[in-house]
Amino acid sequence: MSIDAVSTPDRHALRPLRYLWRVPLLLVHVVLGILLCGCILTWNRKAVMQDGREPFTHRMIRLWSTGLMRIFGLRSVRIGQPLPDAVLFVANHTSWIDIELLHSQRAACFVAKAEIASWPLVGWLAASGGTIFHRRGSNHSLAAVMQVMVERMRSGRSVAVFPEGGTGHNGVLKVFHARIFQAALDAQVPVQPVALRFVRDGRRQIDAGFRDNENFLQNFLRMLGGPAMDAEVHFLEPVAASPEGRRRMADLSRERIAAALEDRPA
Description:
The protein is of the alpha/beta class and 266 residues long.
């Protein structure tokens, strides 16, 4: 597998120029996001997809997320098709941008770490979009989160999770936790793996994710000034409910995502 981790020097030299036009655009886009959350989502927060028909609020979420990605120099590319109606999406996790990347193609309720709820503006936007917050390391919190996931999916809403339990570094795909798959079994909805892959010049880029010891603000600023790249969303073959249990479902999901992340020979 061929992976680029470092940008070339000439791309770094253009970073100050990118900030000059991206920062004003980002501020305008954030204001639009506040209006979106304060008006449209509040007005029709519980709308769900029915028979494959996407509600207006979901289209607005997708458009806003697509716009945010473009401001950061990321062109969202869909490969494959998401299943309609209520689905449990399981995806690999590299950074905060993964949520917006998947939202650019399909609106869903995300399960995210509880710390995000306290982040300025980001936490409010996440909560307005239906994010389910989980306190890592707490079995009580996980049980409550699982219950909410089942309720959301039974009501017709899709839920997206990162079964690695945290962000991976340097392109490493960690083991998937199996317990989270029980929610799909209880709600009787399909599981669809989703591979999130950043690409430049035909080669996978791992530097879009968090670096070791890099915090949210550092990653945010680095990405905002970074060179353009494609951000691929691979909707993969669904994983059937397995008689061997949720461990097998987790392993199959991971195998399919790992295969989609590989670079293809030219």
